[in-house]
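Priority: medium. Attachment 1 of 2:
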C-alpha cells in the first residue's frame, strides 16, 4: 500500500487502510490487537480537520513536535503549576477550525487519537529531532496503550528521525512496556530517547526508579522547571545507591558494581511564567549538576530560560 492510499484511508477513517498500516509496521512481532477495533467519536480515533505537518517549535533541543493525540493533561506535581500545554489546550478547545472531536479531546473530556496526524513523521525525509506528544503526557492514564503501540510503529518506520519522549508518568510507560513485551513486541528503538521531567529531588527519585527499568536507547532527565537542588549521583535503587550519571551502584556489604541503568543526557531549564516572565533556577543548583555531568562525561543542555552565564547546549552522541 502506498502512502497516498494510507493517507486517504486515514482521512476517510477507512478501517482497512488503517489496519493495513498497523500490520505492515515492524514494531510488534505479534499484533497487539488482532481484531482491529475501530472506534469513532469521543475517546476513539478520528480524523482531525486540523491535519497537516508536524509543528515547528521553539523548544531549543527540538526541531518539531508531533502531537497525534488531542488531550488535556492533568497536573501531577508542583512542576505542573504553570503548564503551557494546559493553557494551549484551553485555547484549542475554542478553535472552531479543528474538528469537534479534537476540541473535545483538548477540553479534557477524553483523549482522541487523530489518525491523520499519525503518519506525519513519515512524510518528512530530512532527519529531525521530534518531541513526541509534548502537548500532554504520553504516560497519562487515559491514553490507550494501543495508541502508544501505534506511535511506536511510526517511530520504527521513520528511522531517519530522532524521537524524544518526555513524561512525568514513567510508571505508566513501564506498565505499557511490560504488557507489550508479553505480547511479543517492545524492543527498544535506537532512534527513541526516553526521559522524565522532574522539578526537585523527591520527584526525581520517584520517577527515575521507573525510567531506569524501561529499556531505551538513550535515557534522559529534564530538570525543567528546576525548583530545588537536585543530586543525580545518589539515588536509592535496588537496595543500594546509584550514581545515575555513571551507573555505579553502591551496595551495603558488597563491592560496588556498574549497571547499564544510567542517564545519557541532562536538560536544565527555568520556570516560564505567563506574560513572558522567567524564574531561573539558583545558579548554585546548576553549578552542582554541571560539575557532576562533566565528571561523568554526560552531555548537558542548559536552556535559555535557565539564564546561566555559560552556554552549554550538548546532545548525546
Ligand atoms: S504532566 Fe506535563 S503536560 Fe501534564 S499537566 Fe504536568 S506539566 Fe502539563
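Attachment 2 of 2:
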Amino acid at each position: 500500500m502506498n502512502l497516498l492510499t494510507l493517507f486517504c484511508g486515514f482521512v476517510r477513517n477507512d478501517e482497512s487502510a488503517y489496519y493495513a498500516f498497523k500490520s505492515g509496521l515492524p514494531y510488534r512481532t505479534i499484533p497487539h490487537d488482532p481484531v482491529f477495533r475501530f472506534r469513532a467519536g469521543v475517546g476513539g480515533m478520528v480524523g482531525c480537520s486540523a491535519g497537516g505537518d508536524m509543528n515547528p517549535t521553539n523548544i531549543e533541543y527540538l526541531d518539531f513536535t508531533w502531537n497525534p493525540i488531542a488531550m488535556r493533561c492533568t497536573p501531577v506535581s508542583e512542576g505542573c503549576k504553570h503548564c503551557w500545554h494546559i493553557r494551549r489546550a484551553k485555547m484549542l478547545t475554542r478553535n472552531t477550525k479543528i474538528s469537534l472531536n479534537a476540541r473535545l479531546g483538548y477540553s479534557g473530556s477524553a483523549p482522541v487519537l487523530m489518525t491523520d496526524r499519525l503518519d506525519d513523521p513519515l512524510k518528512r525525509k530530512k532527519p529531525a529531532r521530534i518531541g513526541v506528544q509534548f502537548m500532554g503526557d504520553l504516560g497519562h492514564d487515559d491514553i490507550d496503550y494501543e495508541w502508544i503501540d501505534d506511535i511506536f510503529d511510526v517511530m520504527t518506520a521513520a528511522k531517519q528521525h530522532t524521537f524524544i519522549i518526555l513524561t512525568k508518568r514513567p510508571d505508566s510507560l513501564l506498565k505499557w512496556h511490560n504488557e507489550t513485551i508479553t505480547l511479543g513486541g517492545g524492543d527498544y528503538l535506537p532512534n527513541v530517547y526516553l526521559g522524565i521531567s522532574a522539578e526537585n529531588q523527591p520527584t526525581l527519585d520517584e520517577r527515575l526508579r521507573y525510567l531506569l527499568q524501561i529499556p531505551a536507547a538513550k535515557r534522559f532527565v529534564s530538570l525543567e522547571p528546576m525548583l530545588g537542588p537536585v543530586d543525580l549521583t545518589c539515588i536509592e535503587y535496588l537496595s543500594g545507591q546509584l550514581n545515575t550519571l555513571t551507573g555505579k551502584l553502591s551496595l551495603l556489604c558488597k563491592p560496588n558494581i556498574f549497571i547499564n541503568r544510567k542517564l545519557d543526557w541532562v536538560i536544565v531549564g527555568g520556570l516560564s511564567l505567563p506574560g513572558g516572565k522567567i524564574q531561573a533556577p539558583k545558579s548554585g543548583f546548576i553549578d552542582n549538576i554541571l560539575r557532576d555531568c562533566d565528571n561523568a562525561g554526560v552531555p548537558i543542555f542548559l536552556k535559555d530560560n535557565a539564564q546561566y552565564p555559560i552556554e552549554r547546549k550538548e546532545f548525546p552522541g
